[in-house]
Design brief:
Blueprint lengths: L6 E2 L5 H11 L3 E6 L2 E7 H9 L10 H4 L13 H11 L3 E5 L5 E6 H7 L4 H11 L7
Parallel strand pairs: 1-2
Antiparallel strand pairs: 2-3, 4-5
Helix pairs in contact: 5-6
Length: 137
Amino acid sequence: MTKQVVTLSGSASICEAVKLLNKEKIGCLVVLCDGKIEGILTERDLLHRVLEKGKNPKQTKVSDIMTREVIVGQPSMEVYEASSIMIKYKIKKLPIVDKNQSLIGIVTVTDVARATIVDKETIELVEALANMHMLER
């Protein structure tokens, strides 16, 4: 789990969010309001909800296009449990929250790959996570 999660406010512009994503070299930002997860902004959100729709990134707010229904995990989870949730919901980022629903970290496909022993089964798992957008819904 990555403990230093990059976050921003839903009132930020898409332009500000993209600058932060590029600066930090990451693929998502967790949107917080009063310390609680309000949403998540991923590269896919930007592609589908901004670029494809022709929205102005300087005028569009993060809260207008972020994913609001965020699937989260618990700090006590094992890697295989987090991976299973990610595959089930076809997500590549899994914010981790404590019992008060406060953000304490995030697990990504990259984290899963780093944490597991590289064998045939692990390679298949990482490939499934990386290509889940191709799975039928």
